[in-house]
Amino acid sequence: MRTKIVFHVFMWYTLHFLFGFHQFDDCIEQGAAEPAALAYAAALRLARRTRAIVRQNLAWALGYNIVAVPLAAAGLVTPWVAALGMALSSLIVTVNALRLARIPDR
Description:
Elements: H1 2-18, H2 25-29, H3 34-73, H4 79-98
Helix pairs in contact: 3-4
């Protein structure tokens, strides 16, 4: 439970200060809260997409290392095949992370 609270506080500070949402505080006080609400909702969607992709990348890297490292340590895989597998794994993680750059349809 404490980890969840710390995460939410961290996300609030990140969204509020790093992305400039503190600029909207004056707008909210003046009654123009809609732009702030829309920006906050968009940032939350981006944060959720980011978290999902980070989890996918971590799962891929963990799965790859659980399979590949023992095979390489046992000498069942030649060094060039291990290097190729590691390069492909890094490429997969990078391409998956680049999905964040594309704008979703909704």
